[in-house]
Amino acid sequence: MNYINDYITSFLGYLKDNRGYSETTITTYKIALKQMVEISEIYEENGLLIIDIKKYRMAIFKQNKKTISKKLSAIRSLSQYLFQIDIKNRVIGDDSIKTSKTLPKPIQKNHIDEAIKQANLIEKTILYMLFGLGLRISELSNVKLSDIGSSWINIVGKGDKTRELPLVQNVKDVIENYILVYKPKYYLLEVENKKFGVYHIRTTLKELFKKIGIKATPHQLRHSFASEMLNNGARITDVKELLGHSSLETTQIYTKLTDQTKLKNYLSSHPLCKVSHEHN
Hints:
This protein has 280 residues and is mainly α. It has 2 domains: 3-92, DNA polymerase, domain 1; 109-262, Intergrase catalytic core (hpI Integrase, Chain A, Orthogonal Bundle), CATH 1.10.443. It is built from 13 helices and 7 strands. The strands form 3 sheets. Strands 1-2-3 form a 3-stranded mixed sheet. A two-stranded antiparallel ribbon has the order 4-5. α1 packs antiparallel against α2 (23-39), α6 crosses α10 (218-231) and α10 crosses α12 (248-269). It is globular.
């Protein structure tokens, strides 16, 4: 199936031109996907592109877990891209393996404040929804006008689970202003009577933060929301519910991040550390 190679070439171009991936990352993806195509069984069945990577998994099983995880991530990203370009597909044998969790990288609050100053109304609405409510990008894309109440908003998350989030006044004001100006009909974020897709939201946010000279992703804003909440005394169980996490273990990653922030602040203000720094 030669066209799978055409899909991969298109995908790698998308990562470079639209997602801003580095040449190193793109090369890593290219190598992993080339190996996958050579070993895996790829065929069509009932209008579905099947990518069976079980043999590929067997070939790489002796590699370390992080390497395997990165290769599987490349394959999953390709699968998601294919869906974006209307190529229905199914990956067989991509079961996750457990790897040590790395800390998320939130955007610094001063960068977010600067972005807000630079934002137009659409950008500001996206920014407030992601940072002000801690939404996943897919959740924001699917917010309907009927989900928005006077004080609460209903969010449909992973597994179609619905959670109710409180609307703080400044987020509510931005939403009301946006609706007044753009008059969406069904979804909160619409363009030409169709909802903003994930790609559209991601690109809009990318361009906003580009104005202030930094790279940022929607998911980093979700990380920022969680970190700010915990740093300001919110209970971890409450943050878990706000984020829509099914497990407290997932939310606890952010406590490690806030501990690092507290340690950094402690070391920067500790008198002995100051003395040591001055002597250096």
